[in-house]
Write a structure and sequence with these properties.
This protein has one domain. Helix content is about 80%, strand content about 0%. It is globular. It starts with a helix and ends in a 10-residue tail after the last helix. The mean pLDDT is about 80. The protein is mostly helical. It is built from 21 helices and no strands.
Amino acid sequence: MPVELWYLISVFAVAIIGFMLFKRPLYECMLYSFLVLLTVSGTWGNVWSYITDALQESTLYVIFVFIISASLLSKTSIIDDCIKIILALFGRLRGGAGFVAIIGSSYMGSLSGSGPGNVATTGVFTIPAMIRSGYPPHLAANVEAHASTMGNMIPPAGMIAIAFAALDLLFPNTYTLSEYWLLLWGIAIWFILQRIITLYVMCRYYKVEAMKKEDIPSLRQSLKTGWKAIFLPIIVFVPFLVTSRYEAFFQGRLGVDGAKALNNCLLLLIPSLIVICGILLSGKETMKKMKPAAIFSEIKGGMLKVVPTAALVLFAYFVSNVFADLSVEQAIGDLISGLNLSRVWLCILLPLFTAVLGMLLPGSTQVKIFGGIIISVMAAAGTNPMLAAGMLPCICGSMHGVTPPYCACVYTGMGIAQSKLKPTLLNCAIWIGVHYLLSVIILLEWLPIWGLK
C-alpha cells in the first residue's frame, strides 16, 4: 500500500478518535489531524504556505459573512414578511417550505456555483420558513444543504467545465459542451426527484404536517403588508443571473480569473447589501432599533456562532493543501487504475471512494486529479464515457459539501437553523446514503438519462 494512503488514513484516524473517543469538537480534531499529518509526512517546513493558501479560499469568508448577515436579518421584519409569503403560498402542503428550498436552491446553486454560498443566500429565507412550518431545525438545515449542492451538478458551475475538459482530453472532438450540458440536466432531474422523494419520506417520519388553516397567513394580507420583501430575493438572484448568463462577456473583459474573482466578490458583497436593504425595507421602527451599536452587538454575538464552523473549514483546507503537496491524490489514482475492477464493482466503489475523499478534499480538486482516471477506467470497463464524466460533479462536488467532517454546506445550514451537531449529522447520513445509491444506479445505467447517447 502506498505511503500516501497511510497519510490519508492517519488523518481520518486522528479525527475519528478525537471526536468519538475523547468527545472533542470536530474543528479541534481537524487541527490535531493537520499537526499529525505535518509530523508523519515531515512537511513542517511548508506549514506557512499551507496556512496562507487556505486563508485565500473565498468559501471561508462566505460562511463568515452570510451566517452573521442571517443573524442581523433575523432582527428585521423583512425576513418575517418573506416567510409569511412562502407559507401563504405553500403552507397547505405537507412540508411545503422544504419543497420550495429544493427547487429554489437547485436553481440558485447553478448560478452561484458555491454550495455553502447557496445555503447562505437561499437558506436565510427557506430555513426559518421550514422551522416556522414545523420542521425540526436539524432537518431544515439538511434539506437546504443537500438542495444547495445541486448547484455543482447543474450548468454552468465551474466544476462542470473541469469535468468536461477531462473528457475532451481523453476523447478529443468526440463530444460537444452543449451535449454535455444536456446530459447534466438529464442527470440532475433524477437527483432533484430523489431529494423531493427523500423530503416527502422525512416529512412523514418527523410528522411535519401541512399547517393548520387558521395558522396559514393570508396571501393577500401578506403581500399587502410585506410586498417589499419580494425585492430581497431579487437582490440576491439578479447579480448571479447576470454573471451566469453573460459569462462570456465578463470573461472577455476580465479574463477567466477575473470573472471568477467577480463571482467571489458578489458572494461577499451581497450579504452586506441584503442586510442594508433589509433594514431599509423594514421601515422606520427597524431603522431606529438597528443603530450602529445594536448592529455591532449582534455581529459580536454572531461571531460566537460562526467561529466553530469557519475553524473546521479552515483546518480542512490546511489538510487539503498538505495532501496536494504530497501528491496524495495522484498516488491513490494510480492505485485505482491498477486494481482492474469489474464495471459493477467500479460503479459501487468509486462513488463510495469519492465520498470518503470528500470528507477532506474539495470536489474541484478531486475532479482535477481523479477525473481523467475515473473516466478512463469506467470507459475501459464498458461505461459510456460521457456518463462517467457527467457523474463526476455528482460524486465529487455534491458529496464534498455534505460529508463530515468538512461538510461546509451542512455547517452553514446549522449556523442558520441553530441546530445541534449530533442529530444534524445523523440525519445528514441518510441523505448521503440515498444520494450514493442513486449515483450507483445511474452509473449502472439502470435509469433512462435524457441527453445520453
